[in-house]
Structures are given as C-alpha cells and as structure tokens.
Automatic annotation (TrEMBL):
It comes from Rousettus aegyptiacus. Catalyzes the peptide bond hydrolysis in dipeptides having basic amino acids lysine, ornithine or arginine at C-terminus. Postulated to function in a metabolite repair mechanism by eliminating alternate dipeptide by-products formed during carnosine synthesis. One of its GO terms (biological process) is regulation of protein metabolic process. This is Xaa-Arg dipeptidase. One of its GO terms (molecular function) is carboxypeptidase activity. PANTHER family: PEPTIDASE M20 (PTHR30575), XAA-ARG DIPEPTIDASE (PTHR30575:SF0). It catalyses: beta-alanyl-L-lysine + H2O = beta-alanine + L-lysine; N(2)-(4-aminobutanoyl)-L-lysine + H2O = 4-aminobutanoate + L-lysine; beta-alanyl-L-ornithine + H2O = beta-alanine + L-ornithine; N(2)-(4-aminobutanoyl)-L-ornithine + H2O = 4-aminobutanoate + L-ornithine. It comes from the Eukaryota. The keyword Lipoprotein does not apply.
Amino acid sequence: MRPGEERPVEGGACDGVSELELLKLRAAERIDEAAERLGALSRAIWSKPELAYQEHHAHGVLTRFFECEPPAASWTVQPHYQLATAFRAEWELPGVPAVPRPLHLGFLCEYDALPGIGHACGHNLIAEVGAAAALGVKGAMEGLRGPPPPVKVTVLGTPAEEDGGGKIDLIEAGAFKNLDVVFMAHPSQENAAYLPDVAEHDMTVKYHGKASHAAAYPWEGVNALDAAVLAYSNLSVLRQQMKPTWRVHGIIKNGGVKPNIIPSYSELIYYFRAPSMRELAVLTKKAEDCFKAAALATGCTVRTFKS
C-alpha cells in the first residue's frame, strides 16, 4: 500500500471488490502486522553471516520465529529437518475436515552467506520474504468467508544454496514430496513476477606440470601457472563469440607455492550458464577446448571435473 492509503477492514464495506482482492488485502494486512518481527528476523540473520551447512544461528532464529508466531503453537515446527541446519514449519486451518490430499503450498527460506562478503546476495531477505509470504497466505485463509478449502502451508528452510546444494539434498530426502507448488523470491534491482531459469554447471580444472628452481634451472620446469593464465586468457578472448545470454565466470584457485619455484600444479574453478542444456553443452565444449589448448601450449597435463 502507498503511504497514507487505508485498507478496508470489513469485506462488506468494499463494494465492487472481488473476493480475491479481499484475500490479497487480508494477506497484506497480516504481513504488515508482522513487519517488525519480520524485520528483526532479517537483521538477525544478516548480522551473523554463516556459510553453507553451518547456518546454526539462522536456523535457530527462523525456527524460533515460527514457534513464537501468535497464536501460540499455530505452526508445527521441525528443527534440523533432514539436514542439521534445515527446518520445516507447517500450518493448516483448524477445524477443517481432513482430506487425503489438501492443496499443499510451499515457501522457501534461504539463509546462507558468501565467503568474505556476508549476505551480499541477500539471503537474509529471501528468508524474510519466504516467512512473510507464508504468514500472508495464513492470514488470507483465516479471513475466508464460508467453508474454507483444504489448504496446507509448509515453509522449508533450505540451507547451502551458495555451495553444496541444500535443496538437492532435501529433494533426495523427500522433503518436496506432495508439494503442489513452491514459491520463493530473490532480491533484485527491479520487480519481476517471473525470472527465466538458466542451465548451469561448475567445472574444476587442474593442470599438472613439473617443478624446478625458477632462477637456477627454469628450463627444466613445466609451468602449470602458465597453463592456468593461458586458459583464463583463452576464455577471455572467446567472449567475443559468446552469445549475450551466456555467462562464464571463474577464478584461479591455486597458482603455485613460491615465486622461485616453477609451479607444478594450478587449479581453476569456473561456472557456466546458458538458457538451455543444449546451449550449455555448446558453451562447455568451447571452454574445454580452451583448457586443452593451454595444456598443449605449456606441456602440462589437464584434468577437468564437472559438478
């Protein structure tokens, strides 16, 4: 709502307003009521960033949030659900006759951080928005006139988004079974109801050469760092022929031990993204050729590992 704009409280006072719009208003009202608690939740996660699978503080903050959400015991909370830092919180409207398959809505909370720069990706906000959306649906359902439909709301705390794949672990453990639709939101510089998915995989590239003293016998060495630098340069040159929708980003993780030792080992890590698996395969093949060319030019051996 805009500043100063009032929401109608009673459905009967809203001539010409549809039931759907009334439900949206009630959802927004419930979120507004919880705004202070939601803001505190986000700040608590942001103030103590934790890496993948180590989000113990965030896990505790989120599970306490749902355990304490009024009225008391309205959410059934399972801490440490399938993973040490995952959780599950469920709500159903009391008094609704049980049915074999209610409409099952899921909302996701992420809360892991990035190494060195904390919550620069805004996962504290993802956790806040996931919790807020679940509260909003709960508020809308509680405001329904007439017999309510059978609906179940589940909030899943999904750790390790930045590294490791916590959602994959939870999928394999059956956490998403019987969920009809799952929602999450991500911070962005613009509002968008939908963002296209991209195909992505990671690749680790390892070059092996031969160590030698860089001052006394440099000609005896095979420089693995040279191979890494050439590979990085090859991919940089390749960018001119990349499609605008392709993304390639990487780092040199290991480049040697000391300046006076010809590096016998180097390692790069790259991420590749494309709109489809077919295009990702084309992009990956071009990158692999760049890695092989660097090995050939320096006399190193190269091994690539996909994940």
